[in-house]
């Protein structure tokens, strides 16, 4: 599963881990994240992310 | 005893109670030849509030300035706009001494302060847009994540039309003058630009959004009180438009040629390249990493359109002083640059390839094939360097025209 990196702070979204604090369960693809999901580190929106 | 250190009145209800660090010369790799200040502010409301604190060794100076106005026990709230240690280093001790009713920070700030100090002080998270009543006046909080840490926030005092902007709009400049109108404009612009380039640059997209957010909030601003350097009260729109300009990173007709050299061969190439670009009417800054500090390079790159990098090959690699500046530049993420690489070598010549790769990693568009030479460049190689400069100048002009 493809990882995505935040262009602002460098956080990497790893679908294998999800984003438990943001209510995103393990195994959720980046593409399937809700449109209003934001980077758990810096609050950047999904558009700031690119494939790692 | 009379007050050795005094508070300075900023606006009707705000005093500056920070500290001046005349001797600091390095902020995690950013050289600060003119020292700095750590600004803390006192809001003289019904509930007296301290905004930010100072670097740990300067605690006594801050406390003395506060005591020149009030007793410490009169402070009811402390706000931490930014958790970095130059603003929070003495926070746990100051909380113990002052014993305020409440301490506030952004949600991320609360976590960060816990990770920094591992202590039991209760810090209350405030939300983006939340308003805190100080009795006869209010503070409004605005999250400004990644300007320049995840915890960063602005605090606005509507009563005095004053924005506490933590590190944004700041500069590392130690002065006894506390206001922008007391310092020459050229000094302010240079220091603010250097600060922006060395601290804020990678977060330029966020800066643009934050400026928009402040406009949308409709905040009237008569004062900007940052955590370093002077308070802006004369030219508010000036510093805001400079931030807009720097964050936009629109390239200009300027090239920065940065190099490091072993036996002056790469230097000879650099000199010809710089001369050639200048002959095309492009402003050029030639910077030898044998002499220049990385902080000055990123200041020059801030408004440049081209970045040309050169290094001798040392033991199959680029020179260490060149690696230093390239790593620093890569982290600061300048955008909208074109570039190319050059250098001299003795037997293997990896430096040019490696420099090109770093430029590509930085998303610098390579516009000319690299030039390299074994040992000392002769006239034919210098002629190649001259052509190389011309190609880069032409490419830059093309981009500026579109």
Key features of this structure:
heterodimer, A: 52 residues, mainly beta, three-stranded antiparallel β-sheet, 3 strands, globular, B: 402 residues, alpha/beta, Metallo-beta-lactamase, Chain A, Rossmann fold, 2 domains, six-stranded parallel β-sheet, 12 helices, 24 strands, 36% helix
Question: What would you note in describing this structure?
Answer:
The complex is a heterodimer of chains A (52) and B (402). With 52 residues, chain A is mostly beta strands. Chain A has no helices and three strands. Chain A has strands at 4-6, 12-13, 49-51. In chain A, strands 2-1-3 form a three-stranded antiparallel beta sheet, with no helix packed on it. The N and C termini of chain A lie close together (11 Å). The relative contact order of chain A is 0.35. In chain B, helix 5 crosses helix 7. Chain B contains twelve helices and 24 strands. The longest helix of chain B has 23 residues, at 379-401. Chain B is elongated, with a radius of gyration of 24 Å. The model of chain B has no long low-confidence stretch (mean pLDDT 97). Chain B has two domains: 8-248, 4-Layer Sandwich (Metallo-beta-lactamase, Chain A); 255-396, 3-Layer(aba) Sandwich (Rossmann fold), CATH 3.40.50.360. In chain B, the strands form six sheets. Chain B has a seven-stranded mixed beta sheet. Chain B has helices at 59-67, 85-88, 91-98, 107-117, 185-200, 204-217, 236-248, 265-279, 294-301, 320-332, 350-361, 379-401; strands at 8-11, 14-16, 19-21, 26-27, 30-31, 36-38, 41-43, 48-51, 75-80, 102-106, 124-126, 131-133, 138-143, 153-157, 162-166, 223-226, 254-260, 283-288, 306-311, 313-314, 317-318, 338-345, 365-366, 371-374. Classes of the chains: A mainly beta (52), B alpha/beta (402). Chain A binds chain B through residues 7-9, 41-44, 48, and chain B through 143, 145-146, 150, 202-203, 205-206.
């Amino acid at each position: 599963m493809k990882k995505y990196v935040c262009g602002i702070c460098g956080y990497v979204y790893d679908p294998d881990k999800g984003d438990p604090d943001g209510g995103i369960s393990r195994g959720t693809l980046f593409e399937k994240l809700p449109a209003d999901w934001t980077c758990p580190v810096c609050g950047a929106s999904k558009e700031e992310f690119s494939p790692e | 005893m009379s007050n050795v250190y005094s508070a300075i009145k900023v606006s009707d209800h705000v005093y500056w109670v920070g500290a001046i660090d005349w001797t600091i010369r390095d902020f995690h790799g950013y050289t600060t030849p003119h020292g700095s200040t750590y600004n803390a502010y006192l809001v003289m409301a019904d509930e007296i509030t301290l905004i930010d604190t100072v670097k740990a060794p300067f605690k006594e100076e801050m406390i003395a300035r506060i005591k020149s106005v009030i007793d410490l026990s009169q402070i009811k709230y402390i706000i931490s706009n930014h958790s970095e240690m130059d603003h929070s280093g003495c926070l746990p001790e100051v909380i113990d001494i002052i014993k305020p009713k409440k301490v506030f920070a952004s949600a991320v700030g609360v976590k960060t302060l816990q990770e920094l100090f591992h202590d039991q002080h209760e810090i209350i998270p405030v939300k983006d847009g939340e308003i805190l009543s100080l009795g006869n006046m209010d503070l409004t909080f605005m999250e400004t994540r990644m300007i320049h840490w995840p915890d960063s926030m602005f605090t606005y005092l509507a009563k005095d039309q004053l924005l506490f902007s933590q590190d944004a709009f700041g500069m590392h400049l130690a002065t006894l003058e506390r206001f922008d109108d007391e310092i020459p404009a050229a000094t302010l612009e240079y220091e603010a630009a250097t600060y922006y380039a060395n601290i804020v640059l990678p977060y330029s997209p966020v800066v643009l959004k934050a400026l928009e957010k402040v406009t949308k909030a409709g905040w009237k601003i008569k004062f900007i009180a940052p955590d370093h350097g002077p308070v802006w009260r004369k030219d508010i729109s000036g510093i805001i438009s400079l931030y807009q300009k720097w964050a936009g990173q629109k390239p200009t007709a300027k090239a920065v040629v940065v190099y490091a050299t072993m036996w002056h061969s790469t230097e000879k190439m650099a000199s010809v390249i710089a001369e050639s670009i200048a002959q095309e009417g492009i402003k050029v800054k030639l910077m030898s990493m044998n002499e220049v500090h990385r902080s000055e390079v990123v200041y020059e790159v801030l408004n440049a359109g081209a970045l040309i990098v050169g290094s001798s090959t040392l033991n199959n690699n680029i020179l260490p002083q060149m690696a230093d500046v390239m790593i620093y530049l890569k982290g600061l993420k300048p955008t909208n640059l074109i570039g190319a690489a050059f250098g001299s070598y003795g037997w293997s010549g990896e430096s040019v390839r490696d420099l090109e790769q770093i430029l590509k990693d930085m998303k610098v568009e390579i516009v000319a094939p690299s030039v390299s030479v074994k040992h000392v460049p002769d006239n034919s190689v210098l002629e190649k360097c001259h052509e190389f400069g011309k190609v880069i100048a032409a490419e830059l002009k093309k981009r500026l025209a579109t």
